[in-house]
Design a protein that fits this description.
Elements (H helix, E strand, L loop, with lengths): L2 H12 L3 H34 L3 H48 L6 H4 L2 H43 L1 H48 L1 H6 L3 H53 L5 H43 L11 H7 L18 E9 L7 E10 L4 E5 L6 H8 L7 E6 L2 E2 L5 H5 L2 E4 L10 H6 L7 H10 L3 H5 L18 H15 L3 E5 L7 H15 L3 E5 L11 E6 L2 E6 L1 H7 L1 H23 L1
Parallel strand pairs: 3-8, 3-9, 6-7, 7-8
Antiparallel strand pairs: 1-2, 1-4, 4-5, 9-10
Helix pairs in contact: 1-9, 2-3, 2-5, 2-9, 3-5, 3-9, 5-6, 5-9, 6-8, 6-9, 8-9, 14-16, 16-17, 18-19
Length: about 600
């Protein structure tokens, strides 16, 4: 992405607030004009006051300078407020737009992009951008305007001295252009390295119990130190380039000023120009010097802003591979011409029957390993289907495809015999409730977690769902009941309590299709029995797919599907599979023996 396209994207977010920009520009031009007028005030003070020896003229000149200072202060207040407001508002809009796009991206995007990296872009990069737009960008504009105006006033005041100043401009701009490119490249690397630091720290903190249980605190500290040191080295290079740039600009600017003062002083001594004119000229020359110095400093900051903007635009322009038919017509016409998808269908009007037909699927991060191979299976409406098999058999992959988190490379996944690509993904998922083996809870209170997915549910409906999931009793014992905050990822609850909150959420959403990934696996025997009763009630009349690790929980299933290495190897009831499927028989034998072993101490007591 080149700099021009990056700035164009940034300007797109600024356009809605053009009135604020116009106001800021008017205030900027006003203050720049006052600043330039002060130079003439300085000339009057020197010529009419100091040199002429007139107290009254000195008083008038000083009052004029004070009035100019008051006007400049008012203009500066307006400019600073408007530009700072714009910096905050535009940054907030960019952050919101990036987040809105990120939450709609396909899951495979997050297989290759770490969450810590994405968070860094949403926080660190947007904070940097806010600083640039609200401060550095304003300083750059002010410097450009005042420096341009001061250069004009230099020529108006004295052409010969002005030529000395102008002769030094190319020498000053040259290092800015040369070092600016290097600063931009290093700024991007610096932001990436900071993101790596945040990502590493976030992962270690998220897995803190594992880190401490394996006593790897020292190892993680050393590894984090390597990441921090790497980020520091990149920042050190960037700082060195910026420091060199600033030093060269200052040297060249004040070298030109020194030459100008020598020539100007000679002209005053010989009577060619007045002391007031030299004073005004020095004032304008100092404005030019400070303006160029500010630009050289801000230029590095603007390069950092370009790097940060590039990283944000990459997220903003990332496209989801899972698209709805009505928004993906052009892409579908070009990429799926050999297998055209029919127009959008309404899943609410379809039978709750799902099917996979000759599906072949590879995860994007594992392109050489098939998760499903020539996989065909139908989940009949209102029936309970259980998927069993060893780890890695592809059971969870079936759920991923049914929810259309991914599309298969070959074959079809259908809803009521219609390809899932005919449906809006959000409308499709509104027909499905998922209870995962590791329930996902948010940093919120109990009622908000249960209500997730159905924000309009009343408190009475939430409590009824909690009672149906046998969660009401333990929720009432929490410090603030249903208003109790659960902490990050529900850290304040036990595994079984988290599971029952997730089940209550599924009950409240009341969807036609249930996907249960061993929903009772984290419960004790008593709770499991209660929740199983609740699930039995919930599953009635609904199409249910269960990933089962404990075979005792799926004896009532209408269909048990045995999977191995991404294929269906057997289907049937529990009794028939014991006879026809050696794999199922072996799984049952191992598991029921383990269950008997677990129950032996209880009988002896």
């Amino acid at each position: 992405m080149n700099k021009l396209s990056t700035l164009t994207q940034l300007l797109r977010f600024m356009l809605p607030y053009r009135r604020y920009w116009v106001g800021a520009m008017i205030a900027l031009l006003f203050t720049a004009g006052i600043t330039l007028a002060i130079g003439q005030g300085v000339r009057l003070v020197i010529d009419n006051g100091f040199v002429a020896g007139s107290v009254s003229q000195l008083n008038q000149s000083i009052m004029l300078l004070v009035a100019m200072a008051v006007l400049m202060a008012c203009g500066t207040f307006i400019r600073f407020y408007l530009v700072s407001w714009l910096g905050e508002r535009v940054t907030a809009d960019i952050r919101q737009a990036v987040f809105d796009n990120v939450v709609r991206l396909h899951p495979s995007f997050f297989e290759t992009n770490r969450s810590g990296e994405i968070m860094s872009r949403l926080t660190t990069d947007t904070t940097l951008l806010q600083s640039i737009i609200g401060s550095s960008f304003s300083m750059a504009l002010r410097s450009v305007v005042t420096t341009s105006g001061a250069l004009i006033m230099l020529f108006v005041t004295n052409i010969k001295l002005s030529l000395i100043i102008v002769a030094g401009v190319p020498l000053i701009l040259l290092p800015i252009l040369i070092f600016g490119r290097k600063v931009r490249s290093l700024a991007r690397k610096s932001q990436d390295s900071i993101a790596d630091v945040g990502s590493y720290a976030g992962e270690a903190i998220q897995q803190i119990k594992t880190v401490q249980s394996y006593t790897q605190e020292a190892y993680e500290s050393r590894a984090f130190a390597v990441e921090v040191d790497s980020a520091f080295r990149v920042a050190q290079q960037r700082i060195r380039q910026r420091a060199t740039l600033m030093a060269m600009v200052i040297l060249l600017v004040f070298g030109a000023l020194s030459g100008m003062l020598w020539v100007g002083g000679y002209d005053v001594i010989t009577g060619t120009m007045s002391a007031g004119e030299l004073g005004a000229f020095v004032f304008y020359a100092l404005i030019v010097a400070m303006g160029v110095g500010t630009l050289s400093e801000v230029y590095g900051e603007l390069q950092r802003a370009v790097g940060a903007t590039e990283r944000l635009i990459e997220l903003l322009e990332a496209e989801s591979e899972i698209q709805s038919p009505e928004v993906d017509d052009e892409a579908r016409d070009s990429t799926l011409a050999s297998a055209p998808i029919q127009p959008l269908a309404n899943p609410a009007q379809c039978r709750a029957e799902l099917a996979l037909s000759h599906v072949r699927f590879h995860y994007p991060s594992r392109p050489d390993q098939a998760a499903l191979e020539d996989f065909s299976l139908t989940f009949k409406e209102g029936a309970i289907t259980a998927l069993v098999g060893p780890s890695g058999a592809g059971k969870s992959t079936v759920f991923e495809l049914l929810l259309r988190f991914y599309d298969p490379q070959q074959g079809e996944v259908c809803f009521d015999s219609l390809d899932l690509r005919r449906f809006n993904p959000q409308e499709l998922r509104q027909q499905i409730a998922l209870v995962a083996q590791q329930p996902a809870l948010f940093t919120a209170n109990v009622i908000d977690n249960i209500r997730y997915g159905r924000a309009d549910a009343s408190e009475d409906e939430v409590i009824a769902a909690a009672k149906a999931a046998y969660a009401h009793e333990f929720i009432e014992r929490l410090p603030e009941g249903y208003q109790s905050d659960l902490g990050e990822q529900g850290v304040r609850l036990s595994g079984g309590q988290k599971q029952r909150i997730a089940i209550a959420r599924a009950i409240l959403n009341d969807r036609r299709i249930l996907l249960l990934d061993e929903a009772t696996s984290a419960l004790d025997t008593q709770s499991e029995h209660k929740v199983q009763l609740a699930l039995d009630t919930l599953m009635k009349g609904r199409t249910t797919v269960i990933i089962a690790h404990r075979l005792s929980t799926i004896l009532h299933a209408d269909q048990i599907v045995v999977m191995e290495q991404g294929r269906v190897v057997a289907t049937g009831s529990h009794e028939s599979l014991l006879q026809s499927s050696p794999l199922y028989a072996r799984l049952a034998q191992l598991q029921f023996k383990a269950d008997e072993h677990d129950q032996t101490p209880a009988r002896s007591e």
